[in-house]
Amino acid sequence: MGLTSKTIGATQVITVESDRIDAAMAIQFKEDMRRETETECDRVILDLAGVEFIDSSGLGAIVASMKQLGDGCRLDLSGLQPVVEKVFRLTRMDTVFKLFTTLDDALAETLD
Amino acid sequence: MTPIRNETCLELSFPATELEASAGIAQLSAGLSQQGLPDHMADDVKIALAEAINNVVEHAYEGIAPAKVQVTCRLERDRLDILISDTGNPMPGYQLPDGTPASVETDLQDLPEGGFGWFLINQLTSDICYERHQGCNRLSLRFDFERQP
User: Fold this and answer.
1) CA neighbor of B125 nearest in space, from B80, B60, B69, B78
2) Is B42 buried (19+), middle (13-18) or exposed (0-12) by CB count in 10 A?
3) Given A55, A91, B56, B149, which residue has the most CB atoms within 10 angstroms?
4) Of B82, B81, B64, which Cα lies nearest the Cα of B16?
């Protein structure tokens, strides 16, 4: 499905290259996330700027990815388009994840 | 600007597989926008439509050979009706699930990874109706909206 990854200090930035995370690709997404996050780090930012649609299976796959990371590593999300943000808000997952408007906003927080 | 007709119909039928559903949802969503579904409704409709169609793929045809999902959309000036039908297994108890999602106020490892589908459909539609008729599941979703000037 396509993820790209880069490391900035103790933060790993993973960019979703697919325009949707839905039922048809949820399992693949989970596997790809597991592979991308094998090395330990303090924080992962998942950049969703290119994602135009997510359904509850895609949402579940992101939750599962956070569980895979465990308690030692934070998973933050950035660049949510309105429809994606809406799915997080309606399911109250916006209270579970920290959502940033842009990747730059998310990266700025590590400087604090 | 495209003129809005009083009533517009859009129909699509596809095999009940995840990949076909994914393409079908995108196609229906684009088609509805072309036919004049207001932009402020597009996201709600797409989310609810995707959840309803995914339910058919995942549950109605669970354990049996997947046949087709038939979707008919009727767009009027201030409402959209979507009928989704399939020949899969009936809903448990021949009724709609109550759609209460698991709480997210829990430990990391206990967070729900699913069970949000019906909750989302309930939140985003004006009315939902389910009937089992001659071996078919018929799910009707209604969206009421106001035309923005």
Assistant:
1) B80
2) middle
3) A55
4) B64
Nearest CA in chain A to B100: A91
Longest dimension (CA), chain B: 52
**Cβ of B43 and A96 within 8 Å?**
no
Beta strands A43-47 and A53-54 are unpaired
B51:A56 CB<8 A = yes
Inter-residue contact A1 to A32 (CB < 8 Å) = yes
The closest alpha carbon to B71, from B124, B1, B137, belongs to: B137
Say whether pLDDT at B4 is over 70.
no
- Residue B15 class from Cβ within 10 Å (0-12 exposed, 13-18 middle, 19+ buried)? middle
B46 to chain A: which residues are within 8 Å by CB? 53, 83
Q: Is B135 exposed, middle or buried (0-12, 13-18, 19+ CB in 10 A)?
A: exposed
Residue A110 is predicted with a pLDDT of: 64
**Gap between the Cα atoms of B54 and B57, Å rounded:** 5
* Surface-to-core class of residue B45, CB atoms within 10 Å of its CB (0-12 exposed, 13-18 middle, 19+ buried): buried
CA B34 → CA B81, B82, B113, distances in Å? 16, 16, 34
Whether residues B43 and A59 touch (CB distance < 8 A) is answered with: no
User: Are A67 and B108 an interchain contact pair (Cβ–Cβ within 8 Å)?
Assistant: yes
Query: Reduced to 3 states, what is the DSSP secondary structure of residue A21?
Result: strand
Residue B9 in this model has a pLDDT that exceeds 80: yes
Name the stretches of chain A with pLDDT < 70. 1, 110-112
